# Entry
Amino acid sequence: MLVTRRIDFSASHVCRVASLGDAENIALFGPEASPNGHGHNYILEVTVEGEPDPVTGMVIDLKKLKDILEQEIVQPMDHRFLNKEVQPFDMVVPTAENLAQNIWDRLEPVLESSRTSLSKVRLFQTSDLYVDIVRNEEQQ
Amino acid sequence: MLVTRRIDFSASHVCRVASLGDAENIALFGPEASPNGHGHNYILEVTVEGEPDPVTGMVIDLKKLKDILEQEIVQPMDHRFLNKEVQPFDMVVPTAENLAQNIWDRLEPVLESSRTSLSKVRLFQTSDLYVDIVRNEEQQ
Amino acid sequence: MLVTRRIDFSASHVCRVASLGDAENIALFGPEASPNGHGHNYILEVTVEGEPDPVTGMVIDLKKLKDILEQEIVQPMDHRFLNKEVQPFDMVVPTAENLAQNIWDRLEPVLESSRTSLSKVRLFQTSDLYVDIVRNEEQQ
# Structure
């Protein structure tokens, strides 16, 4: 059984490869390369796999899950400029793909337990663009 | 090919383990344990797997699917207090997980045919919390 | 990793099997068989699988993906009457299932590259009905 919690956070970023010039970055990233950065209201869906406890009927304590997402993702990322304030995005381009991978890496060890594991991370950068990381692919 | 129909229904519930006291239930379930119960507008997505009929181009007759969901889920659950009016929730805590499992158990035999099978049930309890039951996991 | 782009287009269609009469078509398709046709605002989600480029952090150039969807789907289908203006729907009933399959067939060869492949097509005909075609099933 899969339980999914949705949260959101807002952050600024700019997508530029440091070794490339303005024209090449704009050709690669379009307006995402605009030097002063810009913001998105990211929506994050985190899916945990497990079986419901036979007494409580819960796969995971939802208050605990909310606390984990608040502590591991919202606190370090919300209202930050990712490239300037959140590692490794001083070195790594904060595309939706790289941000989703970083969120996966932050959450996976914390959500691993004898009863549950992280199954999927879905990150919406805008309402018409999202990235999924799924455990099966991750393990390949 | 997968065809998904979305419906909604409204119901009240309270999440409490009968053998535990107030403090323990509130520690487990938070406001979901509030004794008088409370309501949700549940949204249910039911996914059927099959191949389109070569003449009609349909995996399943959508009017028939709507009738099945109306009869098996909406009629027994809509505008009910789950713990008081819908079995087995007099005995089983109506968490989103247990409710999704019960919906799966109600629909699976009715949607099994030579051409189609139930592939997935997704139940939104709120806009930021949903539970999935997927056939592959179910069969393990 | 999976990257999904959402677009929309509006089109008219009518669902009728040519060899059947009015009563049989209405029994099969309900109001979808109404002879003058009717429109939907289709929403299409196209999912591409691949690994992010280690330098750019992108699975696929999103501007290029948008151009492909514009050229292969929006230009031929948007504001058209599918049965009259878009092949093969002069011969094939444009149910959501058949339309999703046609969209898959148009996109798959164009999105196949050494780095990416088409993973999933999801077509919403209305907000409460959608069809998925997923690569694993497609390949069986």
